[in-house]
Write a structure and sequence with these properties.
The protein is built from five helices and 13 strands. By secondary structure, it is an alpha+beta fold. The strands form three sheets. The protein has a six-stranded mixed β-sheet with strand order 5-6-10-11-12-13. A four-stranded antiparallel β-sheet has the order 1-2-3-4, with helices on one face. Strands 7-9-8 form a three-stranded antiparallel β-sheet. A hairpin with a 3-residue loop joins strand 10 and strand 11. The protein is globular. The termini are far apart.
């Protein structure tokens, strides 16, 4: 039987699990200490027919979810994306909650160069089931379209996440952990909460909203990209605390801008509200050696304040 579970549905599942597991992001580490008893991990696997299905990981198994989000008796044999039980990946130091790091505002002076295009964005939202949803690649092309000033500004800011240029990926590849850590910080800044300590569900949902899919093994691998002894050139200031299943922003400030993006063209790629964004990149940090980015984005409402997700990136 074909499984037709939308990305929006999985996001709702994640929200439900987050709210069930924790009552407030501003809890102290002591009161959040019982979170590990209620941790629920969601993800995607392939069933025996090759269909992508939503699953919940429990007791070392991957149970398929039905269209209503209920756990079924169907179990995926040899799941590929099972979260590791060893989530320490570096220091297990427990960080005490504190006040919010200083915020770094998004760039406000964003120009709109898409006004000469003949078409406009599709007003419809993503509606196709997962088995009919075909994500384009960065090499695909379509008809140029005009984006509103607001949408151009939003997409520009999404592509200006600090150090986002350090890795490229296509939709058929896992999201690189090294850029997901920086995205997590940028998304947490947008939560605008007076704390530096966040329930893991908040981070998982924020990443899902930005990428429109699960960042595989983010908890397990986060600290390998953010710890002081990592080989990553520009580690993000975020740490996963496995002892109480929380994330802590460890810096006194969120990350400063590393580059600016000037969108030159947007193309409608069709299928399920997919668009190709072509933009120039200007360096603000010496580590930025790229001059162009091509992104595949999707218009959706996983995060209503953004309205888009980034499905693929190619920096050059």
């Amino acid at each position: 039987m074909m499984k037709k579970i939308s990305a929006l549905f999985l996001c709702v599942c994640l929200l439900a699990s987050c709210f069930a597991a924790c009552s407030s992001d501003t809890e102290t580490a002591d009161t959040a200490g019982g979170l590990e008893e209620g941790i629920v991990e969601y993800g995607f696997e392939q069933d025996e027919n090759g269909n992508t299905v939503a699953v919940v990981y429990e007791d070392g198994k991957a149970y398929v979810l039905d269209a209503e989000g209920n756990k079924t008796d169907e179990v995926i044999e040899n799941p590929k994306n099972m979260p590791s039980e060893d989530s320490n990946s570096g220091s297990d130091e427990e960080y005490e909650p504190g006040t919010s790091p200083s915020r770094v505002p998004d760039r406000d002076d964003v120009g709109n160069n898409t006004g000469n295009a003949k078409g406009t964005t599709n007003s419809e939202l993503t509606t196709l089931p997962m088995d009919e949803d075909k994500v384009p690649t960065t090499s695909d092309s379509g008809k140029t379209v005009e984006f509103s000033d607001k949408d151009v500004k939003t997409v520009t800011n999404m592509l200006e996440v600090p150090y986002l240029y350090t890795a490229s990926y296509e939709s058929n590849q896992n999201v690189p952990i090294e850029i997901a850590t920086h995205v997590a910080c940028w998304m947490l800044q947008r939560e605008d909460l007076d704390t530096n300590n966040f329930a893991s569900g908040t981070v998982v949902i924020d990443l899902f909203n930005y990428f429109a899919r699960t960042v595989v093994s983010f908890k397990t691998k986060c600290n390998s990209c953010t710890s002081d002894d990592t080989d990553v050139a520009n580690p993000a200031p975020i740490k996963y605390n496995s002892s109480n299943d929380t994330f802590t922003v460890t810096g006194s400030s969120y990350e400063e801008p590393t580059h600016t993006v000037n969108i030159k063209e947007i193309q409608d790629l069709g299928n399920n509200n997919y668009y190709k964004v072509i933009a120039d990149v200007n360096s603000k940090d010496s580590s930025c050696k790229v001059s162009t980015v091509v992104a595949v984005i999707q218009k959706n409402k996983l995060d209503t304040s953004l309205g888009f997700s980034v499905k693929a990136l190619k920096w050059s």
